Amino acid sequence: MVTGAGGLLGQAVVARLRGSDVIALDRRGLDITDPGSVRATMAAHSPDVVVNCAAWTAVDDAETREAEALRINGQGPAHLAADCAATGARLIHVSTDYVFAGDASHPYPENHPTGPRTAYGRTKLAGEQAVLTALPESGFVVRTAWLYGAGGANFVRTMIRLADERDVLDVVDDQWGQPTWTTDLADLLVRVGNAALVGQAAPGVYHGTSTGSATWHELAQEIFRLLGTDPTRVRPVATSAFRRPAPRPGYSVLGHQRWCEAGLAPIRHWRAGLAEAFPALLSAERR
Fold first, then answer.
1. Of 31, 50, 94, 243, which residue has the fewest beta carbons closer than 10 angstroms?
2. Which pLDDT does position 96 carry in this prediction?
3. Is 120 marked active-site?
4. What pTM was estimated for this model as a whole?
5. 66 is a domain residue
6. CA distances from 263 to 137, 256, 258, 259, 273 (A)
7. For residues 58 and 110, what is the distance between their CA atoms, to the nearest angstrom?
8. Which of 120, 148, 206, 251 is catalytic?
9. Could you report the per-residue pLDDT of 168-184, keeping only the tens digit for each?
10. Has residue 287 got a pLDDT over 90?
């Protein structure tokens, strides 16, 4: 069962499961903030694995609407976890790099102490804690970051559009992360679910991001290269050039040690994923 199936990641997970026995539920099909609705849905479908892609992702809006974000990012996963505990289903809950302070200089290991600096990060951490507390033997938290895909708005599609509209672009060069294609993450989540069903993957926290790392400026330049245009049209600037309500992590590169322990390969390098994804992204943005 996939919750948030209409979102950027949810669409990719459902597409990856096409041909399988999958229940795809968007926000109209299931409101995860309603415990009665969650209970009835779980009882009606009896899923073996639940992949929770439902989330409040508006990072800046959460600063002034934290209670609303918490209902979706914190209380919603708690409702799912409670019913998974009651029915014996495994729960794979998608979380974020924002649970960390974002001030490291080396990749964050899965067990690094959390310390969110934003309302969004606090609400996502609440969801993680709810899942891990209710499901110590069958709860999986997969943190991701810098997601892009053809199924909705994201940085890559924005750069494709702006490349047609502007002569030059200013993009921050002091934030480090891991650009991650939704299709690559969806494949990883399905592999986790299959491994969980046969007892291969231990429960707990994993990091679902591409290998390698980049700044937003480096990513934008790679997008321009793939477009066949001059990457020097993208100029580096500091984060201070863009004032945002929620502070952005300066460094949120995530480590992938637990995949080795589970016998699963992490996601490939971000450049390889972007190159394969690019034709679909270009088509989605320019159609």
1. 243
2. 98
3. yes
4. 0.97
5. yes
6. 18, 12, 9, 6, 21
7. 24
8. 120
9. 999 999 999 999 999 99
10. no
